[in-house]
Specification:
It is a single chain. With 530 residues, this protein is an alpha+beta fold. Among the domains are: 219 residues, no CATH class; 71 residues, no CATH class. Helices cover 41% and strands 12% of the residues. The protein has 17 helices and 14 strands. A five-stranded antiparallel sheet has the order 6-7-8-9-10, with no helix packed on it. The chain has a three-stranded antiparallel sheet with strand order 5-4-11. The chain starts with a strand and ends with a helix.
Amino acid sequence: MVKKNQIRGVTTAPNAKGYSEAGASLTKRSMKGFTASSGSPNEDINWNNMTLRQRSRVLYMSSPVAAAAINTTRTKVVGVGLSLQSTIDRSLLGLTEESARAWQRKTEAEFALWASKKRACDAIGMNDFQGMQQLALKSWLMNGDVFAVVKHKEGIPESPYSLRIHLVEADRIRTPTINGTLSRLSEGVNKDNGNAIYDGVEVDSSGMVVAYYIHNNYPHELTKKQEKPARVLAYGNNTGLPNILHVTDSERADQYRGVPYLAPVIETLLQLRRYTESELMAALVQSFFSAWIVTKTDPANMPFNEVGDGLADVPGENPSGGVSENDHEYEMGPGQINVLAEGEDVQFGNPNIPTSGFDVFVKTICREIGAALELPYDVLIKEFNSSYSASRGALLEAWEAFKMRREWFVNSFCQPIYEIWLAEAIARGRINAPGFFADPLIRAAYARAEWIGPTQGQLDPLKEAKAAILLTSKGIKTHAQVTREIGGGDWETNAEQVVHEMQVLNSAGAAPQDIEIDADDLEEGSKGDE
């Protein structure tokens, strides 16, 4: 029988193998103090959500680095807002290229009619659809998740659609407390059906989300309103469409609530803010010019914080000019000479200058924060003073994260709302889509779309334009791909405009000249970086 050792309540074999001699070691000096304890997603995340959200929001309001991380991600992912570009599957729908383009343009125009009006798309009338995208993404970054409640309201003159979206902040989604008629929903269990409730999210026995609990107030809010949670089904029983969209990013299985974007670096950001403030105070103190009078005079005869006679320096009214005649008061002025009495001396303060390594230390910490948030230091601090290759590498690395988050945000927010709107538009007869409600495959073919947003920044537009021309000429990329990546527009629309412009130039006798680009041009451009 193998003899066992008992170490802090954990049984281990003396001939430990694998991770027992590495990250799971309980005998190494360096690991003995590392008593990690992790629980279920509900314990690790939901029980701490309130604290994480509060700290994340405070850091956004008080830490420049935290605000930069959130605002930069918001700006690069959605910018002023993602624009709809319908891309239906015309081969599946049996449409010609011309009829498919006509359908897409009609749908885009109808969607813009709804999305561009604040009262038409926002349930509280504060933002158009592009503004709602910015708000939803920033709310997710600060709070870990955000909820979009689907509502319907008729009677808006400028819009024929009833769809309204109401954005609800994460704090208002929580498990109801014991309160009168709501007592059956206490302790995280819906006693009507036995479903578990995780921080306001109700799930059935299989773990599927079935409902959310939206409160009419915030926790600990100073209000006279009585707390009234409303149970909202995740999907409509008749339509199957979402009643509420939960925009979040999961990091663990069986996770039902999100974690703020800044959660991994909250402590680091707080310490960096404190350190910066202390250095700022040191610099401020250094700017003060203080002096102490060393004297043997009885302190009782010395004035305290009094300089001058207190009278304004008004010509003709104050002959002394505000200068004190008291021998025990000392004043400083340009070119002034003071004669000290016997036994008196002057000593000037010399506060220490701020730490000489402040800049290096802050940059190092910011690099760690940027790495955790997938924001390279150059992008996080907006400091592009490295070489072209290094700066472009930082932009490319950041852009991978931005594209990932954009795809996730589109799938969680933009596309579902578009599909809900499209169902109403077709049901009202404003858009013709045969078979939309009869066949899910046909429905998906009509609902296909791309969402165009901010493009990757360019450090050297000429060099990157030459690379794009070379890629399209060799068939590595399409013109549509390059147009989306560089300008974020629609290549077909651009092509039509270019044809029109060429006709105007030809009629004026100034035909444009084609520019030849080859690989040698790119090689010469890269040498300049060296």
